[in-house]
Amino acid sequence: MGSVSLKIGDGTARFKSATLCSSAVNILMLFSVLTTNLFALYAFTSSPKDHQTHSIHHPHKNISLISEQVSLILREIDSSQKQLAQMEKELLGYESIDLSRPNIASELKLFLQHHQLPLGKDSRSGITEMVASVGHSCEKSVDLLSQYMSYKVSGPCPDDWSLAQKLILRGCEPLPRRRCFAKTIPKVGLYPFPVSLWKPISDKIVVWSGLGCKNFECLNSKKLSRDCVGCFDLVNGFENQRFVKARGKNDFLINDVLALGSGGIRIGFDIGGGSGSFAARMAEKNVTVITSTLNIDAPFSEFIAARGLFPLYLSLDHRFPFYDNVFDIIHAASGLDVGVQAEKLEFLMFDIDRILRAGGLFWLDNFYCANEEKKKALTRLIERFGYKKLKWVVGERPESAVAGKSEIYLSAVLQKPVRV
Predict the structure, then answer these.
(1) How far is CA 379 from the centre of its chain?
(2) Closest residue by Cα to residue 16 from 7, 8, 25
(3) Beta bridge partners of residue 50, listed in sequence order
(4) pLDDT band at 398 (very low <50, low <70, confident <90, very high)
(5) Which residues are within 8 A (CB) of 411 and not within 5 positions of it... i.e. 6 or more apart?
(6) Rg of the chain over CA atoms, in angstroms?
(7) CA-based angle 188:193:196, to the nearest 5?
(8) pLDDT attached to residue 233
(9) Where are the transmembrane segments (predicted)?
(10) Which pTM does this prediction carry?
């Protein structure tokens, strides 16, 4: 029996890169092909004898019957292929946003369209098309996402950075790119580096929309977090003494920590680094530090950049966009606290370990321990990584007592081991 040529879509068979679900999909496809071929074999070979005799005298009826059977087979194959394609898309997870909804912005539809590679399948990566990167949780906030993607193409972007941050905090990260021009503010009065590290920042070079405070004086009167109390005041207060003058035994000094580093400390990463003072102190020691931050209640990113430092606008739920074993030092404070679930902190700690080189330092700086159990859980987690404890201090911070109740903090400098 001759073969049947089947053309679906543009006629080209496409296979995605191998995934965990590929075996199941292949089995289903094989089952579908076997079933349809058995059905075809039965249709062409199981006619009654009297029908065979009758068909000799009526060849046109026999041809019609065969044509109907072939059409039925083709419809079954087409339906199976569509079902398998939909199953694969759902399992792969990259097409979870329903673009057929009436309220989806046209720009979002255009961005999320798949684009075929001009030369077909890429031999190195195995992909056949480019798929836009967008956070998996965007499906849960599709109305806000569509609002974010509603704008005039090649025009000014809406003043909606707070909307974008809201989407990021809901897990819609990364966000789609947009074809509009972001709002600009003249950066007048910036100081040259390294003078810029400790000079006051002008209120006029910051976007204050979406924030409760409209100037730095207002911000310095508030406790924005445990690690940011008056942290935008670079002249008065304690911010300009951090890491060079200790207020208690939990405060480690920059020079002491750098002396512990084997092979030299050249580049670092500060997780949730407030206004960037850790990066500023390290810059004075010729160490380049990237500071991850979000603009929660304050313009952290713009302030850090105005100091001549490198801000990275990134939530802690996002995998760090760095290759393995690249940083000499990673610094984190209470911003490392990502919730009550132990597994959530584990995911974060494993990613920190991934980007820290062997022999590199992990500086846990005044991590707030809400209770003894949390301190023990964190200690057990750290011990699982086999880090060498170069410094380890548990105690109270002098300024942390609230209504007579003491607060316990953990500070440590840990060295990543060489693993075989």
Answers:
(1) 27
(2) 25
(3) none
(4) low
(5) 250, 251, 252, 364, 365, 366, 367, 391, 392, 393, 394
(6) 31
(7) 60
(8) 94
(9) 24-44
(10) 0.73
Range of lowest pLDDT (49-58, 214-223, 313-322): 49-58
pLDDT: is 53 or 186 the higher one? 186
Between CA 227 and CA 394 the distance in angstroms is 17
Q: Residue 56: is it exposed, middle or buried by C-beta count within 10 angstroms (0-12/13-18/19+)?
A: exposed
Q: What is the pLDDT of residue 55?
A: 47
Q: Report whether 415 contacts 387 (CB < 8 A).
A: yes
Q: Give the C-alpha separation, 303 to 373, whole Å.
A: 36
In this predicted model, which residue has the larger pLDDT, 187 or 406? 187
Q: Is 271 helix (H, G, I), strand (E, B) or coil?
A: strand
Q: Two tokens at 354?
A: 């991934």
Question: For the segment 122-147, what is each residue's pLDDT rounded down to a tens digit?
Answer: 777 778 887 777 887 888 889 999 99
For 304: left if phi > 0, alpha if psi spans -120 to 50, otherwise beta; the answer is alpha
Sign of CA dihedral 324, 325, 326, 327: positive
Of 396, 392, 394, nearest to 414 by C-alpha is: 392
Token look-up 């512990």 returns 260
With b for 16 or more beta-carbon neighbours within 10 A and e for fewer, the 315-340 pattern comes to: ebbeebeeeeeebbbbbbbbbbbeee
65: amino acid identity, one letter: L
3-state secondary structure of 118: coil
Which sign, positive or negative, has the C-alpha torsion 328, 333, 335, 337? positive
d(CA 249, CA 242): 13
Which of 227, 204, 201, 224 shows the shortest CA–CA distance to 214? Answer: 204
Q: Cα angle at 38 between 35 and 43, to 5 degrees?
A: 125
Map residue 189 onto helix, strand or coil.
coil
Q: How many Cα atoms occupy the beta-carbon half-sphere of 24 within 13 Å?
A: 9
| Residue 78 region by backbone torsions, left for phi larger than 0, else alpha for psi between -120 and 50, else beta | alpha
Q: State the Cα angle at 220 between 219 and 224, rounded to 5°.
A: 65
- Contacts for 147 with CB less than 8 Å, ≥ 6 apart: 105, 160, 163
Phi and psi angles of residue 221, each rounded to the nearest 5 degrees, phi first? -90, 0
Q: How many whole angstroms separate alpha carbon 284 and alpha carbon 274? A: 18
Length of the chain: 420
Q: What are phi and psi of 231, to 5 degrees?
A: -75, -5
